[in-house]
Design a protein that fits this description.
Elements (H helix, E strand, L loop, with lengths): L3 E10 L2 E11 L4 E5 L6 H8 L7 E6 L2 E2 L5 H7 L1 E4 L11 H11 L9 H21 L15 H13 L5 E5 L7 H17 L3 E5 L3 H7 L2 E6 L2 E6 L1 H6 L1 H6 L4
Parallel strand pairs: 3-8, 3-9, 6-7, 7-8
Antiparallel strand pairs: 1-2, 1-4, 4-5, 9-10
The structure holds adenosine-5'-diphosphate and magnesium ion.
The site of adenosine-5'-diphosphate has 11 residues, from strand 2 and helix 1.
Protein name: Branched-chain amino acid ABC transporter substrate-binding protein
Organism: Marinibacterium profundimaris
GO cellular component, one term: plasma membrane
Length: 249
């Protein structure tokens, strides 16, 4: 059993069977990559894990508890954090202000009316956000408008915002899409560092094979809504079925 266990998950959109009987287990503290051609159902699968879509059939268990029927907020509280395909940061706010948002959200929900306790909470949030920027190697950018940063730095900020919630499972949907090579390499280094330093499991959807082979401990190839093969990276490279279906050889 893994930290994430997906069993027989199917999802249909009208006449289109986007996922059929997907079974996949993600081992704790591993980096599990999900690859496959465009339209294979990768994002649909991810959306089923975070409560954005509800599968028609099957089960999704995180740390032994079902995520199905829970809201995205509840699933986030369970310890699953997701990085979107396009960065979800607030361009008009500074880097530090962006980082403060999830730090506010991860406090307990109790609304404090007392001015002193409000102030203390704010100070606490500021400290947490600043420490997180140091952790992300972004302290020097704290006053910059988020919109003016490079794509790689925007991604770094967004990943930091996710990590500030201390998730046990980080989900990434094509985190290097549209990036220049230097930004891609930067993102690879960041994810490697996170993998080494933190007690975290990462599931990553990725098109760029350089990224996949740099990071993944395990790879699942999805084709037409079904897992075609799951194996270690070195076996995926040489697998003729994979080369045919995905690598286009
Ligand atoms: P991938 O991320 O692997 O490229 P997706 O999961 O986005 O693939 O899409 C799988 C299939 O489901 C595609 O054919 C896509 O057009 C279709 N699809 C995805 N989301 C929806 C939706 N909300 N409504 C209808 N069809 C959808
Ligand atoms: Mg997608």
């Amino acid at each position: 059993m893994g930290i994430l266990d997906i069993k027989d998950v199917s999802k249909r959109f009208g006449g289109l069977q986007a996922l059929s009987d997907v079974t996949l287990s993600v081992k704790e503290n591993s980096v599990h990559a999900i690859i496959g051609p465009n339209g294979a159902g990768k994002s649909t699968l991810l959306n089923c894990l975070v409560g954005k879509l509800i599968p028609d059939t099957g089960s999704v268990m995180f740390d032994g508890k079902s995520v199905l029927g829970r809201s995205p907020y509840e699933i986030n509280q369970m310890g699953i954090s997701r990085v979107f395909q396009t960065p979800e940061i607030f361009g008009d706010l500074t880097v530090l202000e962006n980082m403060m948002i999830p730090c506010f959200a991860s406090r307990d929900g109790a609304f404090e009316l007392n001015a002193l306790s409000q102030f203390m909470k704010q100070r606490d949030v500021l400290e947490t956000a600043e420490a997180m920027l140091v952790d992300m190697n972004m302290a020097d950018k704290r006053g910059m408008h988020a919109a003016s940063m490079s794509r790689g730095d925007k991604r770094r900020l967004e990943i930091g915002m996710c990590l500030s919630q201390n998730p046990r499972l980080l989900l990434l949907d094509e985190p290097t899409a549209g990036m220049a090579r230097a930004d891609t390499n930067n993102t690879i280094d960041l994810l490697k560092e996170i993998k080494e330093k933190r007690d975290i499991t990462i599931a990553i959807i990725e098109h760029d094979m350089h990224v996949v082979f740099s990071l993944a401990d395990r790879i699942t190839v999805l084709a037409q809504g079904t897992p075609l093969v799951e194996d270690d990276p070195q076996n995926i490279r040489g697998n003729p079925k994979v080369r045919e279906a995905y690598l286009g050889e």
